[in-house]
Each structure stands twice: as structure tokens, then as C-alpha cells.
Amino acid sequence: MFSIQTNSKGNVTILRIARMEFLFSYATFVAFEDCEGSTYRTGERYSITTTRHIGTWLDGRQCTVIPAQVWRDWRDTFVRKFGAAIGAPQID
User: Fold this and answer.
1) Per-domain boundaries in the chain
2) Average pLDDT over residues 47-51
């Protein structure tokens, strides 16, 4: 199963693949839920709006904060694998 949901302003996108969810604020991958229901978010600091997007998506759920450099490595790998399918810019 694969689906994409965006909010009315178009600045939040939720990508669902099987039982996983990936949260994008604007075009930035910032959080995800794995197939076991564990949630993770970037440790990188973003705008107040992006921080609010993450908080709204978490909706009180506990999450693991991943250090910024580790998150960037995950993000880069994810975008290389799935980016074309979601319209994300490619990373060289």
C-alpha cells in the first residue's frame, strides 16, 4: 500500500508505505513511524512552523530524537530510494 496525503495549505505531506508513515514539512523529511509503531524525529532545529507540524503529527506520542547528522544520512538514503515517487528533489 502506498498513499500520499497533504494538508490544505500543501506544506505538510504524509507518505504511507505499507505500515510506515513519513512526515514531510514543506519538502523536508522530518519524522517517521516504523512498521512496529515506533516514532522518530530529526534532532535538527527547524522553524516554528515545522516544529509545530512535527508536534501535531506526533499528537502526544513518545518518539526517539535522532541526532541531526544521522538523520541527514537516513534522509539522503530515503530520498535516493523513494524520492522520484514522491516528487522530492534528487540528492547528488
Assistant:
1) 2-86
2) 94
Q: How many residues does the chain have?
A: 92
Closest-CA residue to 66 (of 25, 29, 19) = 29
For the chain, give the percent of residues with pLDDT over 70.
88
Identify the H or E element spanning 3: strand 2-6
Which of 43, 35, 37 shows the shortest CA–CA distance to 62? 37
Overall average pLDDT of the 24-50 stretch = 92
Mean residue pLDDT of the chain comes to 85
CA 73 to CA 71: how far, in whole Å? 5
Q: Report the distance separating Cα 40 and Cα 50, nearest Å.
A: 15
Q: Phi and psi for 83 in degrees, rounded to 5?
A: -55, -45
**Contact residues for 11 (Cβ-Cβ < 8 A; gap 6+):** 25, 26, 49, 53
What is the distance between the alpha carbons of residues 91 and 80, in angstroms, rounded to a whole number? 7
